[in-house]
Structures are given as structure tokens and as C-alpha cells.
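COMPLEX REQUEST
Ligand: zinc ion
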Amino acid sequence: MVTGPSLDEHHPLPRSHGGRATVTVHKICHRAIHAMLSERELAEEFSDFDKLRTHPMLAQFIAWVKKRPPEYYDRTRWSRSRRYK
Ligand SMILES: [Zn+2]
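STATUS: Structure written out below.
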């Protein structure tokens, strides 16, 4: 078993739009990305991951989640983050 932070591979340009490259992101951040942005928005505006990181809502989410204790990642349910929309 793999231990440590839960990581996902994110496609900055969605596979549905022909993207192949991936970046590694925490699962909780990955869910945030896709909750905030459609694949079309990702493809048209945020296929540059450095730009995605500056998205106001996502930057706010990252700043917030950094302050959580590590065990928070396992305990939280995604619905609790609705207030960030
Ligand atoms: Zn993704």
C-alpha cells in the first residue's frame, strides 16, 4: 500500500480535448479544480497549470487547505467545501 498524501494525475488540457500531459496534484485539490471549472473552461482558459494556480477561487482554496492538519484530508467530505464556490 502507498502511504502519505493522496495524489492524483491532473490533465491541464483535459483528455476529452486531446490533452496528454499530466501534473501531480493532491486529490482534495483535484476535486476542487473540477468542482470549480468545466473541462471546456480548463481547455480554453486553464490548460496552462501555472495559470490555473492563480485562479482566484482555487488560490483561495489552496491557501485555506494548507492550514488544515494532515488528517483533515481523510475526514473531510467534499460537500463541506461548497462555501468556496
Ligand atoms: Zn483533473
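REMARKS: The two ends are 34 Å apart (CA to CA). The chain has a mean pLDDT of 82.
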